[in-house]
Amino acid sequence: MSSIPFIEARFFDPEETQIALERRLSEHLRRMRAHDLPSAGSEKAVEDDGDDLGLEFDASDMVTLGEKDRRRIRRRVERLLERRKAASGLAHLKREERERLEGLRGGAQLIAIPSEHRADELAAALHGDMPWMASATEVVWHAMRRSVREGWPGLRLPPLLLDGPPGIGKSHWARRLGELLSAPVSVIEATGENASFGVVGSQRGWGGACPGRLIETVLQTGIANPVIIVDEVEKAGQAVSTKGQAFGLAEALLPLLEPMTARRWSCPFYQVKFDMGWVGWVLTSNNWHLLPEPLLSRCPPLRLRELTSVDLAGFIRREGMKRDLSEAAIGAILGALAHASSRGHRPSLRVASRLLQRAVELERSPVRH
User: Fold this and answer.
1) Which residue, 275, 302, 329, sits at the end of a domain?
2) Which residues are registered as beta bridge partners of 110?
3) Helices (H), 207-305
4) What b/e sequence results for 292-327 when a residue is b if at least 16 CB atoms lie within 10 Å of its CB, and e otherwise?
5) Taking a C-beta distance cutoff of 8 angstroms, is the pair 308, 341 a contact?
6) Is 272:265 a contact under the CB 8 Å cutoff?
7) Is 152 in the same domain as 76?
8) Structural domain span for residue 118
9) Which of 167, 193, 248, 347 is the most buried (most CB within 10 A)?
């Protein structure tokens, strides 16, 4: 993995604390006086990073520093630290917030695809797991090959909007994609939380101001191209501030889905710019017609077909073998789903996944005597 500059901020050496700088300047002053420098009154102590501290001392003074010298050094160090704080671009943040962003001083890492052959392998594995999602897998496959062919430092996926009936595995496909890429995955349920704030965070002045899941994912993992899933995006409501201002999920996503603006995205909470141009976005919907045109222009919907009983049976067999389920357990799941289908229930990957998990728990539970 390679690293990229991720945050528009300036970081200074954390070991240069006030005490360390005062000690450094005190030693510098003693050396000046000990060497009895000529024209010492015109000399200035200058920081290695170019900060002019403006220290002027008479070389004829004694080497031992008095209280007056120490006060002057302390004042100059305090001014230096204030200038550094202002130059960092983080002066408006609380101390604990600045310390959190310190983890990005060296940039963030990018997950990359090493070769086109590896891209083919990953796409084949994804297609083999969920062949009915072929149109989405094809887009990802071409993006992986392009990232290798053009020599990008990491994988950049186009934003995807997966539209189709509920229960066909849109979110499962996105999670599986992240798993195959070894990328962090974060899922935001548009219907289950204040979605716009859940994704991008909220400014101070809004009730419960906090950073969003997007920046939290990068801060926690150090990876600049995680997979962010926004489930049932068309069902998101609007957030309303304590002052009555409305803010919808579509408005929050627009600058993040546009490559030019995503590279210098301003976080509402930290009020600092970050490079979010590498994030892999997967939005899911059941009815793309409910989404606004600006969002659709950046993220054209991929229409996905219904899940068939044959698709579901193949998925259960593959997953059952991966989880070391017995043939009896796999057969029981297939029988239960066949019975449901005969009664008019639509095949659902969500239901199948729950049955598989339950079967694993039953087979691995201790035998009761």
Assistant:
1) 302
2) 2
3) 213-221, 249-257, 259-262, 293-298
4) eeebeebbebbebeebeeebbbbbbbebbeeeebee
5) no
6) no
7) no
8) 108-302
9) 347
Whether 44 and 187 map to the same domain: the answer is no
Whether residues 175 and 231 fall in one domain = yes
Choose the final residue of a domain: 70, 102, 134: 102
pTM greater than the 0.90 cutoff: no
Number of structural domains found in the chain: 3
- Tens-digit pLDDT profile for residues 242-274: 555 556 888 889 999 998 999 999 998 999 999
Lowest average pLDDT, out of 189-193, 208-212, 292-296, 343-347, goes to: 189-193
- Is residue 240 helix, strand or coil? strand
pLDDT band at 63 (very low <50, low <70, confident <90, very high): low
- Burial of residue 129 (CB within 10 Å: 0-12, 13-18, 19+) is buried
148 with 171, same domain: the answer is yes
Proportion of the chain above pLDDT 90, given as a percent: 54
Strand (E) or helix (H) holding 228: strand 227-231
- End-to-end Cα spacing for the chain: 52
Tell me: do 232 and 126 sit in the same domain. Answer: yes
Residues 19 and 112 grouped into a single domain: no
The residue type at 162: L
DSSP assignment of 173-197 equals HHHHHHHHHT--EEEEETTTS-HHH
